[in-house]
Design a protein that fits this description.
It is built from 14 helices and 15 strands. By secondary structure, the chain is an alpha/beta fold. Helix 5 crosses helix 14 and helix 8 runs antiparallel to helix 11. The longest helix is centred in the C-terminal third of the chain and has 31 residues. The radius of gyration is 23 Å and the shape is globular.
């Protein structure tokens, strides 16, 4: 069957963000930033304090990093050598759940069991040495309320975690107690950071002029160094939880997807840009074109990447997912639909970056910087990188010449070690 040309054109139009709309989104993002600095309750950005500025790049010593962002836990022993140099001396990684063997994330487990398991990994990372003193930095990627660098209290579990006895508790206290139970009193947890903050710290340790860190993958979030130029406070990295930015005009399919999602009315930007949702939106559009509205084909962002990259495989991918043979002239349309969604995603993410760049610049010019980005969409999705650069030029004109993006994909561990080193200042 051939696609309805009019319907196809309408879908492309719905997923296209023009220059004027892009500029408006960037301005609204900056407005929400300024609002959030005065009163976070009035902004759709969370403006969470990290209690850290940027590393000097001269941090040295041996530190432990706990990367706790999902079911796979990692503990690393990292040697910082200054001048952006570092070495991973030991890495231990284990899942918190192995089907049929153990499960520390289910409702039947306890906080004590979970953190005892983590303490065992720490012991392995230090080779059972209970003498040498270690500071531990902790990348903890769950919604937390933080009052200083050490003190992060879990607000609510996400990502299918249900371990009782952790919500409402300071996670470093639970870790400290578990380390003590196992006689590991030489390891001192000193810092908790979000994974996006870790990306910024890791990149800024390695090179100068980095003030924005972002994760652009299955999910999406950005943090930045707020200069506090007007108040005279010391600059601090703020975690925006920018996936929750709401001042956007969603398309008809975005609205439909949101209404049927687990959390309707939340994470609007994330639902329009991240890898987790892109394939779903593409699938919804394909279902309309194939006159099977409402059918879920299970397209992923990896399918979209393959569709954009390999014209000769498009018909095969569509057939495998939908059971439909598509007309030869529609192959190009399928590629265009996937490309349009990726381009929209990159443009919206860039508008949020530009909102931050305008905030940093005040009434002056954009400062020279490399935006540090971690994540599979940025790293692997065709059209993402170049459309970030295009949108920067569109919004910043000549000033875009001093701004580019860099990949930072080892941030969670290195960033945590750097935070531990900075905790001693």
């Amino acid at each position: 069957m051939a696609f309805n040309q009019e319907h196809f054109a309408q879908l492309i139009d719905e997923f296209t963000v023009n220059s004027e709309q892009l500029r408006e989104i960037a301005a609204d993002f900056r407005y929400d930033l300024r609002l959030g600095l005065k009163n976070p309750d009035e902004s759709s950005l969370r403006m969470l304090k990290s209690y850290l500025g940027l590393p000097s790049g001269k941090e040295t010593g041996e530190y432990l990093a706990l990367d706790f962002g999902g079911t796979n836990l990692r503990v690393l022993r990292i040697k910082l050598m200054g001048e952006g140099k570092f070495e991973v001396l030991k890495k231990v990684a284990k899942p918190l759940k192995v089907e049929g063997v153990y499960d520390f994330i289910g409702a039947d487990s306890t906080a004590e069991e979970m953190f005892d398991f983590i303490a065992e990994l720490v012991d392995e990372a230090i080779d059972g040495d209970h003498e040498k003193k270690y500071l531990l930095g902790h990348t903890f990627s769950f919604p937390s309320e933080q009052t200083n660098l050490y003190n992060a209290k879990l607000i609510i579990w996400t990502k299918e975690f249900a371990t009782p006895g952790v919500e409402g508790k300071v996670v470093n206290d639970l870790l400290k107690e578990a380390l003590h139970r196992q006689g590991i009193d030489n390891v001192e947890p000193t810092a908790v950071i979000n994974d996006t903050v870790a990306v910024l710290l890791a990149a800024a340790y390695k090179q100068p002029d980095i003030y924005i860190g972002s994760i652009y993958a299955t999910g999406h979030n950005t943090c930045y160094l707020e200069p506090y130029a007007e108040s005279g406070d010391a600059p601090m990295i703020l975690n925006l939880e920018s996936g929750g930015f709401m001042k956007l005009v969603p398309s008809r399919l975005d609205i439909e997807y949101d209404e049927a999602s687990e959390k309707p009315g939340e994470q609007r930007l994330e639902k329009m840009v991240s890898g987790r949702y892109m394939g779903e939106l593409f699938g919804m559009a394909m279902a309309e074109l194939l006159e099977e509205k409402g059918k879920n084909y299970g397209f992923t962002s990896i399918d979209m990447s393959n569709i954009i990259n390999e014209a000769d495989k498009v018909a095969e991918i569509i057939k495998a997912k939908t059971g439909h043979d598509i007309a030869a002239e529609d192959v190009e349309k399928v590629q265009k639909l996937a490309s349009t969604l990726v381009i929209r995603s990159a443009r919206l993410v860039t508008a949020s970056f530009v909102g931050i760049i305008w905030q940093q610049a005040g009434s002056g010019k954009a400062q020279k910087q490399h935006i540090a980005i971690d994540g599979s969409v940025y790293e692997k999705m065709p059209l993402a990188k170049e459309n970030i650069m295009r949108a920067l030029s569109e919004l910043l004109g000549e000033e875009a010449a001093v701004i580019d993006t860099v990949l930072e994909n080892g941030g969670s561990g290195l960033g945590a070690a750097i935070a531990a080193a900075m905790s001693q200042k």
